[in-house]
């Protein structure tokens, strides 16, 4: 079977996903087009040799409803004969795009493929695709009566199950900003981030990071779901999730170039990484955010590795309770968990996050000499993706 390698990976800066955010005046198609152009320019490949463009996007409504990868490819002036497809596995959409790209190369369906993700949460607000609709139906309503839960309530239940205090959640959130700010100061994001031209100028740095964030400051924020009415269903729930210890609504895009090892060698390209193993699984749809636990066990089994082999883990910070519960379950060291900050500081542009995390994880492994990294994403509906990434330049 052909071996699949990652030749390069880039991302946009992260912009606040609201009107007035740094990227809010950029159409998501144009945002992704700029990232695709940068990826191809950096590698110097003939874009006409790309077999497919796989794009994760969670909110396939409005400006993201017309196969955004196809429109972005055309907007960038790239060859018309190259197709695209949109992939939706909620927050894991971009990671699933990467998994499918690798699987396509290994299966012999592709020699050269782009895996990407895009989400403009300022222009296509979360939940736009289902406004006024019931996405669950009668069968799910009966099975999980009195009903499934919003993700924020699931995050509260995770915090309760793993006995995570409000102080622990806020301390973790402050650390995310601290680590991301340090990464910026050290130039750690320079290689992976490409500038985006907007009507108001060029955006070249993440807008979402708040240097100087402290647990004391975060402690002043109100619990976001305390007045949601769910206290009647869970009367003993001590609400702890706030806007400060949850991921930020964000605009962003990321893309990776995946090739067969033979194709990369023929073009004289030096691969940066490879996916050793990947896994997907479902878990309790009420707790919803616990899928990374079984997904981690499954991907480690498939890779033949243990967590002792993992130099860094990216556990998506949908809410602080998610990586903290994962850490409590596995006993993973603090300094190797989300070492450059996560979605609390860098933001969570839903469909793009999986591709963004892989881009950041690869850069971190290269900069630190680590060989293996693990990445996992919780997803709505109680699902998760996980992968093990190898830095091919490791000693």
UniProtKB/TrEMBL annotation:
Q: Which PANTHER family match?
A: ACETYL-COA C-ACYLTRANSFERASE (PTHR43365:SF1), BLR7806 PROTEIN (PTHR43365)
| This protein's name | 3-ketoacyl-CoA thiolase (Thiolase I, acetyl-CoA transferase)
Q: Catalytic center at which residues?
A: 91 (acyl-thioester intermediate), 348 (proton acceptor), 378 (proton acceptor)
Which part of the chain is the Thiolase C-terminal domain? 270-390
Q: Keyword set for this entry?
A: Acyltransferase, Transferase
Q: Which GO terms describe its molecular function?
A: acyltransferase activity, transferring groups other than amino-acyl groups
Family, per entry: Belongs to the thiolase-like superfamily. Thiolase family.
Question: SUPFAM superfamilies from the xrefs?
Answer: Thiolase-like (SSF53901)
Keyword hit for Transmembrane helix: no
Check the record and name the CDD domains matching this protein.
thiolase
List the Gene3D superfamilies: 3.40.47.10
The Thiolase N-terminal domain covers which part of the protein?
5-262
């Amino acid at each position: 079977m052909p071996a699949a390698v990652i030749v390069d990976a880039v991302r946009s800066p992260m912009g606040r996903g609201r009107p007035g955010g740094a990227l809010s005046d950029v159409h998501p198609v144009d945002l992704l087009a700029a990232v695709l152009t940068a990826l191809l320019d950096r590698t110097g490949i003939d874009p006409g040799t790309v077999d497919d463009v796989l794009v994760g996007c969670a909110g396939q409504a409005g400006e993201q409803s017309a196969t955004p990868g196809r429109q972005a490819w055309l907007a960038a002036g790239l060859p018309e004969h190259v197709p695209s497809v949109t992939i939706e596995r909620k927050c894991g959409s971009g990671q699933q795009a990467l998994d499918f790209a690798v699987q396509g190369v290994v299966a012999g369906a592709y020699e050269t493929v782009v895996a990407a993700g895009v989400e403009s949460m300022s222009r296509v607000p979360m939940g736009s695709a289902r406004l006024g609709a019931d996405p669950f139906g009668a069968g799910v309503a009966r099975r999980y009566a009195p009903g499934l839960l919003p993700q924020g309530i699931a995050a509260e239940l995770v915090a309760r199950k793993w006995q995570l205090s409000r102080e622990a959640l806020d301390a973790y959130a402050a650390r995310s900003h601290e680590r991301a700010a340090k990464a910026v100061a050290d130039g750690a994001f320079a290689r992976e981030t490409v500038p985006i031209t907007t009507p108001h100028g060029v955006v070249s740095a993440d807008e979402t990071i708040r240097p100087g964030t402290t647990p004391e400051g975060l402690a002043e924020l109100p619990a976001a779901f305390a007045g949601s009415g769910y206290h009647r269903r869970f009367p003993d729930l001590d609400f702890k999730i706030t806007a400060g210890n949850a991921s930020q609504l964000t605009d962003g895009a990321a893309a990776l170039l995946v090739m067969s090892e033979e194709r990369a060698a023929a073009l004289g390209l030096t691969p940066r990484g490879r996916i050793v193993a990947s896994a997907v699984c479902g878990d309790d749809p009420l707790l919803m955010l616990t899928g990374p636990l079984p997904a981690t066990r499954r991907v480690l089994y498939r890779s033949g590795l243990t967590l002792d082999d993992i130099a860094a883990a990216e556990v998506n910070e949908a809410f602080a309770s998610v990586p903290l519960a994962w850490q409590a379950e596995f006993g993973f060291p603090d300094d190797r968990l989300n070492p450059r900050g996560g979605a609390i500081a860098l933001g969570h542009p839903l469909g793009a996050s999986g591709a963004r995390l892989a881009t950041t994880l690869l850069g971190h492994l290269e900069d630190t000499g680590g060989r293996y990294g693990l990445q996992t994403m919780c997803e709505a509906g109680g699902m998760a993706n996980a992968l093990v990434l190898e830095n091919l330049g490791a000693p």
